[in-house]
Amino acid sequence: MTTEGDDRILQLFKDHAILRGDFTLSSGLKTSYYFDGRKVTLWPEGAYLIGRRIYRMLVEVGAEAVGGTTMGADPIATAVAVVSHLEGSPIPAFIVRAEVKGHGTQKRIEGPLKAGSRVAIVDDVITTGGSVLRAIEAVEAEGCHVVKVVVLLDRQQGGAEELRSRGYDFSAILSADASGKVRLG
Questions:
Q1: Is 61 among the domain residues?
Q2: Considering 22, 23, 109, 140, which has the largest number of Cβ atoms within 10 A of its Cβ?
Q3: Total structural domains in the chain?
């Protein structure tokens, strides 16, 4: 479903976030394009548009918190939290660390996440689904229930299908084909 602002989100990503060359992804796969979503999620207009788009999705499913694996999810979750405050219906953000913190509170999840919460997991890109699944595992270990998974870009390399096969409600704002051509949904 396309909503107001989606065309602008698409244009921002096409203009600023698609890099061409030879890259190795965190999944280990080789690719001729790299999606650097932070070039848009950390830009004021991009952060606002993405935060507003995802906030609307999360309200529909009753999400009580939003987050994901650091770094890709951090600016997205923060944008959603800020928009939710402006809308008068706060959805707090949290961050899932790659590893348990070795000092201080020794937490894997940072932020005001409460056990039993209905949460949304966000990320900038999904390839095979590894980082999203690690975030899901971390929040479920805290007793939370994942009600939505949203990524900015689906590389269409199996991650979305893996999440859906496990019963998660998954959405992508953008998708890309093997050559890196990006389109809505």
A1: yes
A2: 109
A3: 1
Asked whether residue 92 is assigned to any structural domain, the reply reads yes
What is the predicted pLDDT for the residue at 104? 66
Going 21 to 25 to 28 to 29, the CA torsion angle's sign is: negative
pLDDT at 5 over 80: yes
Does this model's pTM top 0.85? yes
Contacts of 68 (CB under 8 A, 6+ apart): 76, 77, 95, 96, 121, 122, 123, 131, 132, 135
- What are phi and psi for residue 21, nearest 5 degrees? 150, -155
Q: What's the rounded mean pLDDT across residues 95-121?
A: 87
Band of residue 178 on the pLDDT scale cut at 50, 70, 90: confident
Q: Answer yes or no: is 1 within a domain.
A: no
User: For residue 107, what pLDDT band results from cuts at 50, 70 and 90?
Assistant: confident
How is residue 33 written in tokens? 């394009």
Range of the domain at 119: 6-184
